[in-house]
Design a protein that fits this description.
Largest sheet: 3 strands, antiparallel
Shape: globular
Number of strands: 5
Helix content: 10-25%
Distance between the termini: 52 Å
Radius of gyration: 17 Å
Oligomer: single chain
Structural class: alpha+beta
Strand content: 15-25%
Strand order of the largest sheet: 3-4-5
Length: 135
Amino acid sequence: MAYRISNIDPLDLQARKAVGVSIPFSADGVFNQTYQTSEAIKNNIINFILTGKGERYMNVGFGSSIRNYLFEQINTTDLQALEQSTRESIELNFPRVTINQLSISPDHDRNSIFFKIGYSVKQTNIADSISINFI
Protein backbone atom coordinates (compact mmCIF):
# COMPACT_ATOMS: atom_id res chain seq x y z
CA MET A 1 0.00 0.00 0.00
CA ALA A 2 1.37 3.39 -0.99
CA TYR A 3 1.59 6.19 1.54
CA ARG A 4 2.84 9.74 1.38
CA ILE A 5 5.91 10.79 3.30
CA SER A 6 5.58 14.40 4.37
CA ASN A 7 8.33 16.73 3.32
CA ILE A 8 10.56 18.15 6.03
CA ASP A 9 12.47 21.33 5.42
CA PRO A 10 16.22 20.54 5.37
CA LEU A 11 16.90 23.40 7.79
CA ASP A 12 14.80 21.62 10.43
CA LEU A 13 17.22 18.70 10.38
CA GLN A 14 20.07 20.88 11.66
CA ALA A 15 19.21 21.37 15.33
CA ARG A 16 21.66 24.18 16.03
CA LYS A 17 20.92 26.31 12.97
CA ALA A 18 18.53 29.22 13.58
CA VAL A 19 16.16 30.04 10.73
CA GLY A 20 14.52 33.21 12.02
CA VAL A 21 13.65 35.44 14.95
CA SER A 22 10.55 35.37 17.11
CA ILE A 23 8.18 38.15 18.02
CA PRO A 24 8.13 39.98 20.43
CA PHE A 25 11.75 41.02 20.67
CA SER A 26 12.27 40.41 24.37
CA ALA A 27 15.42 38.34 24.81
CA ASP A 28 18.59 39.48 26.57
CA GLY A 29 20.22 40.16 23.20
CA VAL A 30 16.94 41.58 21.83
CA PHE A 31 16.21 38.66 19.48
CA ASN A 32 14.96 35.17 20.33
CA GLN A 33 16.01 32.80 17.59
CA THR A 34 13.69 30.20 16.09
CA TYR A 35 15.02 26.81 15.07
CA GLN A 36 12.00 25.35 13.24
CA THR A 37 10.70 26.45 9.86
CA SER A 38 7.12 26.39 11.16
CA GLU A 39 7.98 28.92 13.90
CA ALA A 40 9.83 31.15 11.44
CA ILE A 41 6.91 31.19 8.98
CA LYS A 42 4.43 31.98 11.75
CA ASN A 43 6.56 34.88 13.03
CA ASN A 44 7.06 36.18 9.49
CA ILE A 45 3.29 36.25 8.91
CA ILE A 46 2.73 38.00 12.26
CA ASN A 47 5.38 40.56 11.31
CA PHE A 48 3.69 41.03 7.94
CA ILE A 49 0.26 41.60 9.51
CA LEU A 50 1.58 44.05 12.12
CA THR A 51 3.51 46.06 9.52
CA GLY A 52 1.55 48.77 7.77
CA LYS A 53 1.79 49.23 4.01
CA GLY A 54 4.39 51.86 3.24
CA GLU A 55 6.06 51.42 6.62
CA ARG A 56 8.94 49.25 5.45
CA TYR A 57 11.80 51.09 3.82
CA MET A 58 12.56 50.04 0.22
CA ASN A 59 9.61 47.62 0.26
CA VAL A 60 6.51 49.80 0.52
CA GLY A 61 4.17 47.04 -0.67
CA PHE A 62 5.03 44.83 2.31
CA GLY A 63 2.48 44.65 5.10
CA SER A 64 -1.24 44.83 5.65
CA SER A 65 -3.47 47.86 6.00
CA ILE A 66 -5.42 46.71 9.04
CA ARG A 67 -4.39 49.62 11.25
CA ASN A 68 -5.87 52.05 8.72
CA TYR A 69 -9.33 50.75 9.61
CA LEU A 70 -9.06 51.05 13.39
CA PHE A 71 -10.30 54.63 13.58
CA GLU A 72 -12.84 54.39 10.77
CA GLN A 73 -16.49 53.46 10.85
CA ILE A 74 -16.26 49.73 10.24
CA ASN A 75 -18.83 48.32 7.82
CA THR A 76 -19.14 45.07 5.88
CA THR A 77 -17.85 46.60 2.63
CA ASP A 78 -14.66 47.77 4.32
CA LEU A 79 -14.20 44.39 6.02
CA GLN A 80 -14.58 42.55 2.73
CA ALA A 81 -12.08 44.88 1.04
CA LEU A 82 -9.66 44.46 3.95
CA GLU A 83 -10.01 40.69 3.85
CA GLN A 84 -9.45 40.58 0.09
CA SER A 85 -6.40 42.88 0.19
CA THR A 86 -4.89 40.92 3.12
CA ARG A 87 -5.41 37.63 1.31
CA GLU A 88 -3.83 38.97 -1.90
CA SER A 89 -0.89 40.53 -0.05
CA ILE A 90 -0.11 37.33 1.85
CA GLU A 91 -0.31 35.25 -1.33
CA LEU A 92 2.00 37.71 -3.09
CA ASN A 93 4.62 37.93 -0.31
CA PHE A 94 4.43 34.29 0.86
CA PRO A 95 3.96 32.12 -2.24
CA ARG A 96 4.39 28.85 -0.28
CA VAL A 97 1.58 29.73 2.17
CA THR A 98 -2.01 28.74 1.45
CA ILE A 99 -4.70 30.57 3.41
CA ASN A 100 -7.30 28.11 4.65
CA GLN A 101 -9.31 30.52 6.79
CA LEU A 102 -9.30 34.29 7.13
CA SER A 103 -11.78 36.06 9.36
CA ILE A 104 -11.82 39.68 10.37
CA SER A 105 -14.47 40.67 12.89
CA PRO A 106 -14.97 44.10 14.44
CA ASP A 107 -15.81 44.99 18.02
CA HIS A 108 -17.66 48.28 17.58
CA ASP A 109 -17.82 49.06 21.32
CA ARG A 110 -14.05 48.88 21.78
CA ASN A 111 -13.20 50.10 18.26
CA SER A 112 -11.02 47.06 17.68
CA ILE A 113 -10.62 44.38 15.03
CA PHE A 114 -10.12 40.69 15.77
CA PHE A 115 -8.06 39.02 13.07
CA LYS A 116 -7.73 35.24 12.67
CA ILE A 117 -5.90 33.41 9.91
CA GLY A 118 -5.49 29.68 9.41
CA TYR A 119 -2.81 28.65 6.96
CA SER A 120 -0.81 25.74 5.64
CA VAL A 121 2.51 25.60 3.83
CA LYS A 122 2.65 23.90 0.44
CA GLN A 123 4.61 20.64 0.13
CA THR A 124 4.99 20.33 3.93
CA ASN A 125 2.87 19.18 6.83
CA ILE A 126 2.96 22.64 8.45
CA ALA A 127 -0.46 24.03 9.36
CA ASP A 128 -1.17 26.63 12.03
CA SER A 129 -3.35 29.59 12.92
CA ILE A 130 -2.74 33.11 14.18
CA SER A 131 -5.09 35.31 16.20
CA ILE A 132 -4.45 39.02 16.74
CA ASN A 133 -6.66 41.60 18.41
CA PHE A 134 -6.00 45.13 17.13
CA ILE A 135 -7.03 47.66 19.76
